[in-house]
Design goal:
Blueprint lengths: L12 H22 L5 E2 L2 E7 L4 E10 L3 E5 L11 E8 L2 E13 L3 E6 L8 H17 L1
Amino acid sequence: MERGKGPIMEGDRRFNRGRMRATRMTERRKEKRARRHSRFLCEGFAEVVAFRSNALFRGKIRDISQSGCFIETRARLNLPRLAEVEVRFTACRHKQSALARVMVVRPGMGAGFEFLPGDPRLDKSFRSMIDRLQAQASTKA
């Protein structure tokens, strides 16, 4: 039998690819269920500083919520899950800086961050920016 033809067995590379794809899809579903706040599409630039690894990368904010954001970047990120970082960004003409933790790294796409609760920098002006994005989203729907 030719390689790649016939039934997919556990040792076959095709079996593992399908299993990995299913695992990634399951992870994405869990992330969506785990979100506490609605995410809103926005445009802006971001800079992330990782404390332990002294790493810095820049990217674009793809979406944001009261509890976190996703930053698109082509940079190769070697950030462990739950590593603490500082996220500095400009979105909707609003400059903001916040402490966050890495929740997910998607190679070639970017990373998702959860803002740390209790950071005093996430003040009324940040919440009003989220409220404006929410109002824009509801008028489009």
